[in-house]
Amino acid sequence: MSYTEGLKCRECKREYPISPIHVCEFCFGPLEVVYHYDKIKENLTREKIEDRPKSMWRYQELLPLDDNPTIGTDVGFTPLIRSEGLAKALGVRELYLKNDAVNYPTLSFKDRVVSVALSKAKEFGFQIVACASTGNLANSVAGLAAAGGFKSYIFVPYDLEQGKILGTLIYGTNLIGIKGSYDEVNRLCSEIAENYGWAFVNINIRPFYAEGSKTFGFEIAEQLGWRVPQHIVVPMAGGSLITKIWKGFKELETIGLLDEVNTKIHGAQASGCNPIISAFKEGIDWIKPQRPQTIAKSLAIGNPADGYYALKTIRESGGWAEDVTDKEIIEGMKLLAETEGIFTETAGGVTVGVTKKLIEKGIIPRDESILISITGNGLKTQEAIQDEVGRPIIIEARLSEFEKIVAPKQEARVQVIF
Amino acid sequence: MEVHVRIPTPLKKLTGEQDVIKAKGRTVGEVLQWLTETYPGLQERLRDEQGEVRRFINIYVNDEDIRFIQNLETPVKEGDQISIIPAIAGGSSLKRRVTLTFPAKLIKEPVIYNIGHRFSLVTNIRSANVSENVGWVTLEIDGEEEEYLKALDYLKEIGVKVEPVERDIIE
After folding, report:
1. How far is Cα B67 from Cα B52, in angstroms, rounded to an integer?
2. Contact check, Cβ <8 Å, B89/A191
3. Model ipTM value
4. Which residues of B touch A (CB under 8 A)?
5. Do A4 and A18 meet the contact criterion of CB atoms below 8 Å apart?
6. What is the pLDDT of residue A412?
7. pLDDT (tens digit, 9 = 90+) per residue, A363-390?
8. How far apart are CA A23 and CA A377, in angstroms?
9. Cα separations (Å) of A249 from A62, A246, A355, A368, B55?
10. Interface residue A21 vs chain B (CB under 8 A)
11. CATH 3.30.390.10: does it fit domain B96-164?
């Protein structure tokens, strides 16, 4: 039961059969999965999807597997929340949060792409899986590889947050810390991928892997009652997620499950690593690589592989691109936690901060519907905020001390009478 | 004006297997023009239908991306080095390149002959240095993945250090 037609070069449109490759041999452009949309349209309805189990696999026809998924079958269908507290704080009417901070099993949107990549790797017959990662992908590949019976090798910059290191090692993987930036990790991995017969999820399996991100968009559309918000704010690292959310919406439109896609997609980055934002603001369509310097390490990709397509998506949808400083990122994390009870990682601080900025600038009108993407969990990036959240009040176990230090008597007391 | 142009492995079969070509021109654009006139097969690989340099091909003059200088108008001078580099690494048709480092006890063994003899692989020595105590050789290996992996296992088993070669590719 597969609706895939093959792989196609995004640049020169040359076609290739489904196989573990990611670059066009002719023009060196990236390859992308092509589907038989007419057949999917005949077979897939809103009702059919709604009757299925609540996971990302309810959109299986639009994912590139030949058979049923074997890895990560419970991933996805994360909460979509109508915001009240944050909406009030930002002064907007209709605000939603898509919360992948609680995605199963490793608490970031990466579980979506990895479950597709590893299920596909199993179909191809690989026994060893690997990835280059800024942290969340490392956690996800290590965890899902353990569940799927793969041996795994994970390559990360050596100075990652402790939570992401620990959250990778626990799964019994081979974790390699590279003395360099993510871009250097990625470059090394490209060379390793060429010399070893492994399934590198974000290199030779990339065309399949990237398709998993579409489910973030599919779920938003379904959970809003088969419509899309007028504005979505998406974090950008390599730039893949933003292009795939857009692709997901367009596919639902193509197969008749969405009437009209009029979403403006806004891209968000940290000021300390904003190559896509810079290109947008300069009005050019190529990316000047940067050396990242930001607390948002999960977004610290200075030479984004999908940067060109991310720019194209933002422009095509009529969206905007904006960045926020490290200080604004922390403020965004705290604002979300204090108004909604959601503890997101630094990338979520970026999307909240950028949303606030775009509203203040008038680029997002206050009376239109807005969705903020929350893609990762705050427990993984504790270092970023440990000096910013205050300290607990420590007291002796005596009522008199509690009254003296914490709640002095003159403060209003409420007596409860039954 | 003579400059040196480095050709990436996947395009070498269009330049008669030459790694480096001495080309002529006063700007990067003129050098490319000279190259595609001399090696016509390069034209469609380097430029799209509109004549623009393909998006996923990066060109460097002395390690500086020409987009940061003056693009195709970037002037070049005698002896400059121009590199043509695919933006994304990979492609299954690429030959693998590895560096083998031999411990002293293996220097007199016909290790490379054995790789070609025991496995269905074609080897090609690109560079090498052998002294009394240690030796290394950079090898290009062509053949099926399965055979290649078996050869790697064999090499590791007998005590040869195998490392992938650093290539001029950015991601």
Report:
1. 13
2. yes
3. 0.75
4. 10, 45, 48, 54-57, 67-68, 86-94, 96-98, 145-146, 148-149, 152, 164-167, 169-171
5. yes
6. 55
7. 999 999 999 999 999 999 999 999 999 9
8. 32
9. 11, 5, 21, 19, 26
10. yes
11. no
- Give the model confidence (pLDDT) of A207-253 as tens digits: 999 999 999 999 999 999 999 999 999 999 999 999 999 999 999 99
CB contact under 8 A, A192 and B10: no
Mutation for testing the B interface, residue in A28, A176, A187, A287 having most B CBs under 10 Å: A28
Q: Chain B: give the shortest CA distance to residue A214, in Å.
A: 23
Give the separation between CA A243 and CA A171, rounded to whole angstroms. Answer: 31
- C-beta atoms of B55 and A11 within 8 A: yes
Q: Which residue has the tokens 């002037």?
A: B75
CA dist., res. A312 & res. B55, Å (int)? 13
CATH number belonging to domain B2-86? 3.10.20.30
Give me the phi and psi of A327, to 5 degrees please: -65, -45
A22:B88 CB<8 A: yes
Q: Pseudo-torsion of CA A239, A242, A246, A248, nearest 10°?
A: 100
- Angle between helices A136-148 and A162-169 in degrees, nearest 10: 10
| Distance (Å, whole) CA A339 – CA A359 | 17
**Rounded CA separation B59/A413 (Å):** 73
CB-nearest partner of B54 from A11, A30, A203: A11
What global pTM score does this model have? 0.82
Amino acid found at A400: S
Q: pLDDT tens digit string along A311-348? A: 999 999 999 999 999 999 999 999 999 999 999 999 99
First to last CA, chain A: 64
Test the A interface: residue of B7, B56, B72, B99 with most A CBs within 10 Å:
B56
- Measured CA to CA, the distance from residue B115 to residue B118 in angstroms comes to 6
Q: Which CATH class is domain A80-106+210-384?
A: alpha beta
Cβ of B92 within 8 Å of Cβ of A21? The answer is: yes
